[in-house]
Amino acid sequence: MPAGEAEILLGRLSANASQFMSLRDWGLGADAGTLVANLQGGVSFGDVPVYETFNLGGNDSVRGFESGKVGSDRGFVQASLEYRLQLATLALLDQDIGLGAALFKDHATTLQTDNTVIGQPASVRQKPGEVWG
Fold this sequence. Notes:
By secondary structure, the protein is mainly β. Helix content is about 5%, strand content about 50%.
């Protein structure tokens, strides 16, 4: 909240879309697996402080990178394609537990928006801003 005559303007918009496609529906067999496509994006506007940036990297972003190690910027676009395959079902303590594998390819870019963030955190920390995972 602004104090005195100070003004703050900050907003964030983001979207996420996922599509799950069973390869069984494509006639490839009951155990063919599942394709998962995901597309995400976001943009911030106004005076964006470091703690309100989009942090890319980590299990919920670009896998293979530590959390926040790809970028800390005003905007981003991220896409991933994943193939999931059920390998076996194990019975453990009267519970069926699925054992599976996943192959994936992730891509993310911060749209080179670091120069508009207060303190330019991604540049200062030498974060790449665009990677494949």
